[in-house]
Design brief:
Uridine Diphospho-n-acetylenolpyruvylglucosamine Reductase, domain 3; 7 helices; 25% strand; Uridine Diphospho-n-acetylenolpyruvylglucosamine Reductase, domain 2; alpha+beta
């Protein structure tokens, strides 16, 4: 299998300007620090390079998974039989008045620092959310009652066939923790319509959100963020706490003792450990309350 992967990687390397790795372990590319290898890991330099990678994957019949910043993702222990795409080379960040255009690979923290520096408000609720803007838009990331959808003006996509399109906010079917954008499409750019404000006031709001996040969430451990979506009118963390599972451990994965909606990697955890804990929480919560908790993290790859 490694030989086949290396042959594929060599063929793609002569087409792409970015990097291509064969059988690359994905644990180092995720915030969970968990996961087996991908057949190919491609890091395109720009959207034209991305099109080359997508065309190659299509021709070879390789499933594609966009890794982004690797947050909100659990890669199974058997790895990913296909192509993982890492967009961290897409880093353009521009301001036009009260509009900000950001490439998909820009980290959320970098965008917030940029907005603060330029006195542009509206995205502060994203403070402390890991990962990149591409993933944040795709999953409609948010907290404290706000989300990406509140300020998005437009999004630019590359389809699996290589075609580009620009979608205005009103045409994006956002819902809770989902953009509803076409499956297989890759976000390459997003535009945000923000509001002018005092930089010091923006900085204070960012600091306030960070303090709240650090006090209530296990930021000292590796995780993928919230494991479950909040059910209507309730909180997944409260439900997990209600069935006394905080601090429960399987292998080297543990349901956080600080927040019931986090599973943390205590060091060397396997994806199977995380999934077993998630299944246990779902089973206990359903038995106690009748509520079916739905995973918020994306689970990809093979057992």
């Amino acid at each position: 299998m490694v030989i086949v992967a290396e042959e594929l990687a060599q063929r793609l390397r002569v087409r792409m300007r970015g990097t291509v790795l064969a059988e690359a372990r994905l644990d180092r590319y995720t915030t969970f620090r968990i996961g087996g290898p991908a057949t190919l890991l491609a890091t395109p330099l720009d959207r034209e390079d991305l099109k080359v990678a997508l065309a190659f994957a299509r021709a070879e019949g390789l499933p594609v998974h966009v890794l982004g910043g690797g947050s909100n993702t659990l890669v199974r222990d058997g790895g990913l039989r296909g192509m993982a795409i890492h967009l961290n080379a897409l880093q353009t960040l521009d301001r036009r008045g009260e509009m900000v255009e950001t490439a998909a690979g820009v980290r959320v923290s970098r965008l917030l620092a940029f907005c603060c520096r330029h006195g542009l408000a509206g995205l502060e609720v994203l403070s402390g959310i890991p990962g990149t803007l591409g993933g944040a838009v795709w999953g409609n990331a948010g907290a404290w009652g706000g989300s990406v959808a509140d300020c998005l003006a437009s999004v630019e996509l590359v389809a699996p066939t290589g075609e580009e399109c620009r979608v205005l906010r009103d045409a994006v079917p956002f819902r809770y923790r989902s953009s509803g954008l076409p499956a297989g499409s890759v976000i390459v750019q997003a535009g945000f319509r923000l509001a002018a404000d005092d930089a010091a006031a923006i900085r204070r709001r960012i600091s306030g959100y960070l303090v709240r996040r650090n006090a209530s969430q296990p930021v000292e451990f590796r995780s993928a963020g919230s494991i479950f979506k909040n059910p209507p009118g309730d909180f997944a963390g409260r439900l997990v706490e209600q069935v006394a599972l905080k601090g429960t451990r399987i292998g080297n994965a543990m349901i956080s003792a600080k927040h019931g909606n986090y599973i943390v990697n205590m060091g060397g955890a396997r994806a199977a450990d995380v999934l077993a804990l998630a299944a246990l929480a779902q089973e206990r919560v359903r038995a106690a309350t009748g509520i079916a908790l739905e995973l918020e993290i994306r689970v990809v790859g093979e057992q």
